[in-house]
Amino acid sequence: MTLSELTDRIRQRLGIAELNDMQRSTSAITAGSRSLLLAPTGSGKTLAFAIPFIMSLRKAEGDDPVGVIIAPTRELVLQIFEVVRTLATPDFKTAALYGGHDMRAEQASLSGKPEIIIATPGRLLDHLHRGNISLFAVRSLVLDEYDKSLELGFHDDMRAIVGRMRSLRTLILTSATAAAEVPDFITTDGLKRFDFTTAGATTPDVEIFRVNSADTDKLETLDGLLRRNQDGKSIIFLNHRDAAERVYNYLRSQHYPVGLYHGGLEQQDRERALILFDNGTTPVLVSTDLASRGLDIGGVDNVIHYHLAPTPESNTHRNGRTARMGRSGRAFYIISSADKVPAYIPAGSEYRLEGEAPQAVHRSGRATLFFNAGKKEKISRGDIAGFLMQKGELGRDEVGKIDVKDHCAYAAVPAAKARETVEKLAPHKIKNTRVRVTQLKNK
């Protein structure tokens, strides 16, 4: 596939009229080369490596995959999968493999002989051990956020996977951190660096504030901060899962529209938490650093450091959640007398919790409807949007973000109309398919 053909697809299928400087630079990566792409969160990195990756692919003589992309988390795998599949179809079939996904469904997708595999390291190695897949014909490999995979303990898994790729020619590694070390199983000979960590970085548009907490517990300080900043979306970062659970439960008791996200949750709960946050149903998200990178979440207004980040990289990634795609944002550091503030925490301005805070917590104006059918039932975003407008009698501007998964879908609608919309949809079918629609309640 030529660059001209691919840019046409990017414009028509993704709605991106023009590539940015980084994407234009990486589009010159040729098949058979070895590259290291360093770029900040929110800079368009997925498309930047997807372009040369897809252009490097050639059909194999057999049925084995010819291209593999490895990413550290399920969420990042799914994000990459959507972009790559959208651009590679119909020339190449694409499959996503990740922990927590139904193994039988993945085996079925592999039986369709996909040429592109996008996977987490552990799940891909599992399929290799089961004999479900061969990597002998793979000629192109991307290790996205490879340093995060190493942090999560996937060193040996990735080494074993790369060792199976006897035909590998094109290699692209990516990281959001310039200081990340290349893994020892990758030779750096001939490795060309594309460093965009300083160009177009997201942090200059982040306004930094320090919030002094008289109480080491910080809960009342957090409450006061949130009550004064209820417009827009906020992510609250903590360093431990149990602490995240505690803060989440406290905010729930104060009637905040809040979600919870950390690695100890079931995949479905994590997926729903992100969807409800992204579409505005629960505009407050309590999370560990799992949400600090590798997620495609737009429009985050506030990053709140309930706990101070344990490393400079973690601090950078947290703040990279806001001020994306030309928007501005704010980062609040809640600091008590018990905190030892490391040098990498920026000074910022003092944010005083002065005056009486609003007593009422704003309720979200959005609700999320759940559809028990998705891509595998041939249901698309357009089908759901049309269904909501025609049978649910919603206006075009009332239909919010729609997320379609394999066997389900989610749609944001006005909270005031959610119940009546469900009732109006109940007697009707989508494309002659009976679909159950319910209002999703945040747990």
Order of strands in the sheet with the most strands?
A: 3-4-2-5-6-1-7
Q: Over the alpha carbons, how many angstroms does the gyration radius reach?
A: 23 Å
Helix count, per DSSP? 14
Structural class designation: alpha/beta
Which outline best applies? globular
Major beta-sheet overview:
7 strands, parallel
Task: Give the helix level as a range of percent.
Answer: 25-40%
| First and last CA, distance | 46 Å
Question: Could you tell me the mean pLDDT?
Answer: 92
Task: Please report the total strand number as a whole number.
Answer: 18
Percentage of residues in DSSP E strands: 15-25%
Task: Please mark out the parts with pLDDT under 50 across 5 or more consecutive residues, or reply none.
Answer: none
Task: Please give a quick description of this structure.
This protein is α/β, with parallel strands linked by helices.
Can you tell me about this structure?
The chain has 443 residues and is α/β, with parallel strands linked by helices. The protein is built from 14 helices and 18 strands. The chain has a 7-stranded parallel β-sheet with strand order 3-4-2-5-6-1-7. A 7-stranded parallel β-sheet has the order 10-11-9-12-13-8-14, sandwiched between helices. It has a 4-stranded antiparallel β-sheet with strand order 16-17-15-18. Helix 6 crosses helix 8.
